[in-house]
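go over this:
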Amino acid sequence: MNAIFCIPMPDVKPEVILDRIKSALGYHQQHDRFDDIVTAHAKTFDWALQVKERPTQGWPSLHNWLCHGQAIYSVSGKAGSGKSTLMKYLHQDVRLHDALQSWAGNAQLLTLSFYFWNAGSESQKSQKSLFRSLLYQALCQKPSLGPIFFPERYLPSAKWTEFPTFHDVRRAFKHFTASLDDDSLKVALLIDGLDEFDAV
């Protein structure tokens, strides 16, 4: 008589799974575009985050929108006009983060960014890379989102050979947006170069 013994696999700690997920999501060119953008002089874009809206401005106050606005604030301009430099400046200015925290109120704030670059590598212009980068940043700021984004990764049967596929990250991003319904979490996205977006 033959007997089959099932030996249970040892439990893997959630933090180990999270580290594995983050390692798979990250990629070595993730910050290249941001690093390559020229850093603006300290006073060049100071006007952009001034609290008082100037009468001559032809657009809504960015600072007021950051504190109280909804939906999308779009910055447009001709190629080479400095849009990416402005985005980098805003990203690094503490006033932007203070204003966003005012908007978030008592909710936890996640500030996530991505810089598209059509002249760069595939990872700098694809939708998959956008999802990977935003999910990676979200997990760095709020690790408890791991089981929400990728519940199947926490199963003993999880296979890691092809992770993450485009469908993995797209599905995870849907889980992410669905998790924002309880108002305990606020997310601000700083996306540069949407006109250079390759929808693949």
Q: What stands out?
A: Residues 127-141 form the longest helix (15 residues). The chain has one domain: 14-44+62-67+74-196. Strands lie at 108-115, 185-192. Confidence is low (pLDDT under 50) at residues 1-9.
